[in-house]
Amino acid sequence: MDYKEALAYIHAVENLGSKPGLARIRTLLEKLGDPQNALRFVHIAGTNGKGSCAAMTASVLKAAGYKTGLYTSPYLYRFNERMQINGRQIDDDVLAEIVSRVKPAAEAMDDHPTEFELMTAVALLWYAQENCDVVVLEVGLGGRFDATNIIGPPEAAVIMNIGLDHTAVLGDTVEQIAFEKAGIIKPDTDVVLFEQSEAVTEVIRRRCAEEGARLRIADFSQIVSEFDSLYGQSFTYRGEPYALPLLGRHQLKNAAVVLELVQVLREKGWTLEQSDVEHGLYAVSWPGRFELLSDEPLFVVDGGHNPQCAETVRDNLLHYFPDKRRILLLGILRDKDYPGLTAILDEAADEYICITPESRRALPAAELAAYLARYSKPVAVCESIRDGVSLALSRSDEDSVVCAVGSLYSVGEIRACFERY
Questions:
Q1: Distances from the Cα of 257 to the Cαs of 260, 262, 342, in angstroms?
Q2: Which of helix, strand or coil describes residue 223?
Q3: How much of the chain, in percent, has pLDDT values that exceed 90?
Q4: Where in the chain is the domain with CATH 3.40.1190.10?
Q5: Which among 123, 155, 251, 296 could disulfide-bond with 83, CB atoms 3.0 to 4.6 Å apart, if both were Cys?
Q6: To which H or E segment does residue 43 belong?
Q7: Are 326 and 403 spatial neighbours (Cβ–Cβ below 8 Å)?
Q8: What percent of the chain has pLDDT over 70?
Q9: Distance between CA 318 and CA 326 in Å, rounded?
Q10: Of 415, 374, 408, 388, which Cα lies nearest the Cα of 327?
């Protein structure tokens, strides 16, 4: 099996969708020797911020000298981005070799694993094969029935900001969604929580009490912003100084969660020197999250795709570009809350250019444009993402900024456009 054949096999079961339950992944991993049992994990769930948290955590652990696996989704350019060790993506030939081992085990099952379950099994096999010291494992969807929840008690479970997303699967209240996310909390473990509403916090507290888990909550009142620009920011947390290349106040909150996690790991015997923590945060890379792609003309991209993300993008636009004309390059998936998302983004928008994300679930650009007409602002429709970027750049000047937002499925193509500029 070569690389293309391996990807074709994994993607061939995409039509199975997301099927809740751990029975399939448990059976598959048993057939593969339970590689997860040879590994230690930091398990991260949440609606927003879990990818940024995972990237920061992995960067800190790598800086401290640990061989660190990182499992995230979705990818921006290539499938291999989902699985990394110390910042290096899995090689094509290694991926093909591991898929060739997973396939017969999966094919022998009466209930065939889903695409995400196959990917998770491949990643766990690779991390075990490479003898990782620790794996930073991002939940795919929810938590309780997510394939990543097949692991035993982790070094720590992290629950990031919780909001309304995937409501058809997870529930239509933040309390219901929090219950699903809290499903990653296991007996006698340490839990780090993003500071949030009392309703959500109470759900997490209750789960911790039931499992005998220890809860630590980030304290955002301890964040002091020292310097903030389009090229990075510096801050203190609990009096200690740090620098971060990621933009936005929300990233300082995400970093605060990571710093609480660092304390938990230290208490469990992990060697994390302060200089390594500082270097890890300073060196983190997490593309597509309010990322500045160009400063002449000004162009930022953000994969935000739900109302909670939209609030962050809106706030960042108003903060960093208070006096600029703001052109939104917008593409959204049909199954997202685009009425809620656009109502928030419109508070920071002067005109729109609509594109269609690269997904079979995409809302067509023309349909999005028709919906946006209610805001009585200029709206254009483009046939392709590249056309949208070109039009946005042609309309921008020194008094404007372009912000591409709405879906991570557009980010890779948008970033690729700037290889020409």
A1: 5, 9, 29
A2: strand
A3: 88
A4: 3-283
A5: 123
A6: strand 41-45
A7: yes
A8: 96
A9: 9
A10: 388
Q: Looking at residues 60-82, what average pLDDT do you find?
A: 95
Sheet holding 41-45, edge to edge: 88-89, 83-85, 68-71, 134-138, 41-45, 156-159, 190-193, 214-217
All residues at 6 or more sequence positions from 396 whose CB lies less than 8 Å from its CB, including other chains: 297, 298, 299, 327, 402
Look at residue 159 in the predicted model and tell me its pLDDT: 97
User: Which CATH architecture is the domain 3-283 placed in?
Assistant: 3-Layer(aba) Sandwich (3.40)
> What SS3 state is found at 75?
coil
Taking the model in full, what pTM does it have? 0.93
Ramachandran sector of residue 128 (left: φ over 0; alpha: ψ -120 to 50; beta: rest): alpha
Structure confidence at residue 402 (pLDDT) = 98
Q: Say yes or no to pLDDT of 16 above 80.
A: no
Query: Binning pLDDT at 50, 70 and 90, where does residue 179 land?
Result: very high
Is 367 within 8 Å of 357 (Cβ atoms)? Answer: no
pLDDT tier at 168, thresholds 50, 70, 90: very low
H runs (alpha helix) in 88-146: 92-107, 115-129
End-to-end CA distance of the chain: 38
On whether the 291-417 domain is CATH 3.90.190.20, my answer is yes
396: helix, strand or coil: coil
pLDDT tens readout for residues 86-97? 999 999 999 999
d(CA 245, CA 262): 19
pLDDT for the residue 163: 76
What rounded mean pLDDT belongs to the chain? 94
Whether residue 126 contacts residue 37, with contact meaning beta carbons closer than 8 Å, is answered with no
Burial of 61-94, coded b for 16+ CB within 10 Å and e otherwise, reads: bbbbebebbbbbbbbbeebbbbbbbeeebbebeb
Residues of the chain with CATH 3.90.190.20: 291-417
Does 297 sit behind a cis peptide bond, omega within 30 degrees of 0 on the bond before it? Answer: yes
167 pLDDT band, cuts 50/70/90, is very low
